[in-house]
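Anyone? Bumping this.
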Amino acid sequence: MKNRVCQLVIINILLLPFCLSFSAAIDLGTVEVSYLFEEGKGKLAKDASPNKRNGSLEGGVKYGPGKFGQGLIYDGKDDNLIVRNYHGISGKNPRTILYWFKSASTREHSWVKWGVVEPTRKYYVRAHVAGAICWLRVENAGGNNWGGDDVCDGNWHHHAIVFPKGSKDVEDHQIYVDGKLNGKNGAANPMDTDGEGQEVVMGDFLAHHAFMHGSFDEVAIFSIALTKKQIELVMNNGLASVLSIDPKDKLSTNWGLIKSTY
Ligand SMILES: [Ca+2]
Ligand SMILES: [Ca+2]
């Protein structure tokens, strides 16, 4: 009997990493849109989510070396990606926007935006410039929130903007750079994002800001607030691994996560 109990305890200990790994993976149903840019040619970026929200490549934006395989290289003049017929996440609904970016200059890079240009209705992820450096910033016409890690130094950095469930103000966002939670700066303003007026774009700017200039890869918008652990999994393993929908790949995915996590 004692041996039997010991066997069960050992089996449970062996299975623990599997359970932890599965609970850490991200539900594909929470992915609104995602681009890996692995097609490497053409004018359509293939959506890796189940929603078939392919991206229209505008202004001659080209494929080139990404963080994982291929990515997009934005010329900073007119290059843009439009997510046709997708108008983003509305109201105070939770969300996460993440991607890799390597700057080609210091400027008010426009990374991701949607919503009409009205107080509380706009949703704009862009760079906040301070002299020769820049920070990751989110704003909603009237309020803003920016971090403190320079992302305009010419190196690849992972950006993640998280709006947690139950939050009400633009100041409630969490800003992560390279998986590290940044401090909070900016002005408070209630969140009430418009989800009908403007298609989601990645690259084009608003008003007096600037086109994105540099390399862009592994972008996704989620309808949930990802945890720090989930952001790290995406950052370290890549979206293709974390979001794999092929059951055959699922096993190798989770083996990959176990290896990277334990
Ligand atoms: Ca161009
Ligand atoms: Ca890629």
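Late reply, but here is one note on the structure posted above: The longest helix spans residues 2-24.
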